[in-house]
Amino acid sequence: MNSENPNREETNRSNRAKQLREKGINPYANASAKTHTLAQAGKLKDGEKKVKVRGRITLLRGMGKLAFLRLTSMEGEYQIVLQNETTKDFKLWLDHLDLGDFVEAEGETFTTKHGEASLLIKKLTLLTKALSPLPEKFHGLVDVEKKYRERHLDLATNLKTRERFLFRSNLVKALRNFFDAEGFIEVETPILQAKPSGAVATPFRTHHAALDFECVLRIAPETYLKRCLIGGFEKVFEMARCFRNEGIDPTHLQDFTMMELYASYENYEYLIKLAEKMFDTITKLLGEKEIEFGGKKISLKTPFKKIDLVEAIEKETGLNLETATDAEIRAKIKELKIEVTNLPKLGRGNLIDTLYKKVLREKIVNPTFIINHPVELSPLSRRSDSNNKRVDRFQLVINGWEVINAFSELTDSEDQAERFATQQKAREDGDTEAMENDDDFVKALSHGMPPAAGWGIGIDRLVALLTNSENLKDVVLFPLMKPEK
Hints:
The protein has about 475 residues and is an alpha+beta fold. It folds into 2 domains: about 5-135, CATH 2.40.50.140; about 155-475, BirA Bifunctional Protein, domain 2 (2-Layer Sandwich), CATH 3.30.930.10. It contains 14 helices and 18 strands. The chain has helices at about 5-20, 40, 90-95, 145-150, 150-155, 160-180, 220-230, 270-285, 310-315, 325-335, 350-360, 415-430, 440-445, 460-465; strands spanning about 50-65, 65-75, 75-85, 100-110, 115-130, 185, 190-195, 205-210, 215, 235-245, 255-265, 290-295, 295-300, 305-310, 370-375, 390-400, 400-410, 450-460. The strands form 4 sheets. Strands 6-10-11-18-17-16-15-14 form an 8-stranded mixed sheet, sandwiched between helices. β8 and β9 (about 215) form a beta hairpin. It starts with 5 loop residues before the first helix and ends in a 19-residue tail after the last helix. The model has no long low-confidence stretch (mean pLDDT about 95).
């Protein structure tokens, strides 16, 4: 409310709270009731009496015997008006209210001479006195890092931020309802695991004090979800928090949400149809089939385009991944001046992945299924019946981002053991991103898993794309930040 320095204003706010207590008013109420949300109250006809609303004060203008307050909540915004003649304790509230306070207001609806729906207050109740001020400019936080560090202030002062996170919540709800309607059961699997498995990534390691052994935070829920299929569940999914101790950039976070699902007796072609059906549901939620991201128009109209990975890379580079040696792939990466660390130590799978991301993936704008991956790229995927050098897999790429990774699952435990061994050898040769061996999963698989298909969706990336947010931190409520000194 004032332009004082923060320390002085906090002292003054604290003094106002003390003064209210001395007058027998508790500045921290027990609870509050309402008759209407702020949005509902704004639509009422003039003359409605005993309307009760509540919210945070985000605008306060005193004008002699009148005071205009803007209340804000996740439900909307609404103007309330205090008047000397009609509002009980008018002078008290004018002297003791601050921006950021939460209040409950009861009164009669009317429209101002400027045409704004408002509530003329008979009775005001202070719910919470805010002792620290909100950001002075009520246009949301300007400092991007401060938005991430103090999301509560960003939410309190920025309508677009609130809308973005409401959309995320509604999207997750819609996805859960969609998969439930498709016959999937939601399950929960361990975050603390004995070995990192289910993806090619570097894990976070920790110590389990009670059991006295080194364990990891999961990098993916895959192998445990497959155990559900082995045990008899036919369709399962999980909204899984995953953790990967790797580099950070606008499209990667170390702590992220992935939705994985697995369907028994199905293959990756079933998942292609399911993905398109899911996006039809998403466009209904959006209310349109085209989005904008970074100034580019992206069509979400189904069906989506399909591209053969090996054929596309050969077209771009002249390199046939089925016949090229590791040395030739390394040479091509150098020739194209693709920056990559530890190039001499990378195994074949990571070499191919490096090439694919640079020469193919980053050029894709509209949703596209990348199919027919080399087997070295997919240690957990089923080999194609028509070409044992390929796997039955797709990646759905939008605007250069991998949104879905899916494949027909490998159910041959001996083949799985051999692929783990190949990954382990690459790891021992210096490829730190290669998978570790997972004997427990191979043993579980040896008991028999039905033919199946599964996928993983990066929820953060999906929300970012759908809300035109170029940094994943914009769609994560409280992203991890390095502590300030």
